[in-house]
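Reopening this one. Same input as before:
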Amino acid sequence: MSAYNPFNPFANVDITKFDVTKMMEEIKLPGVDFNTLMEAQRKNIEAVMEANKVALEGMQSIAKRQAEMLTESMTAASEAARQLSGAKNPQEMATKQAELSREAFEKALENMRELAELVGKSNSNAFEVMNNRFNESLHELKGLVEAKQ
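Same output, byte for byte:
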């Protein structure tokens, strides 16, 4: 714990000794089961952690695919340079440049579409984890309400 601070009483509290569960059990509110409440919050935190894990895995797969695309692009660029250097006259070079430009543009669109799909899938998977927990918590709440009636 840091040095005593007379100007901020909250700075003098050792939060390592603070037990929320014990405190909530001592506040006897009628109709509130704090153990159930704490269990629900634990499940919520676990769902957030799982959603973060799924999102991270998605971002890693996107980064990996982007690196693969970069490698493919570098290979294609070197092949394009080789093809252009073999042109026999300016007309043949212009024709090859137009063809290579079209192919590069189509490949860029394909890559953007693929990355957009990967991002969408990653977001959907992370959202699904949170949505499942939300639905589960609604069922838990419904069960609590029905038990009180």
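So the earlier flakiness isn't reproducible anymore. For the record, DSSP finds three helices and no strands in the chain.
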